[in-house]
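Researcher: Excuse me, tokens okay?
***
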Amino acid sequence: MSEDDAAARLRSRLAEVEARLAGQRRLVDGIVEAARDANSDDEHDPEGATLAWERQQAGAMVARAAAERAELLAALERVAAGSYGRCEVCGQAIPAARLEVRPATTRCVQHAG
């Protein structure tokens, strides 16, 4: 895979992740706003526990999307530096099939675990 192809694929994935991240942030904001308007007590109100759980789940999705975004940005930096697609442990080429599935990966299959 050429560097141009890798960069294009990474930018495409980054756009998807950023759109997902924006949507998830809106979801969190909506949950927070709903909780603010509701006069609920998370500890004693049966609905409060649901709101707290939903807020935690949405917050976790935001954190995961933000982490994936950071990984993709780092991968784009590796493309620019000429080190994309090389295992950070052994320096060998990461198989194209692995990069297809995990475009931001930094390790070959042997060193993935």
User: Anything to note?
Assistant: Helices lie at 3-37, 46-81, 96-101. DSSP finds three helices and no strands in the chain.
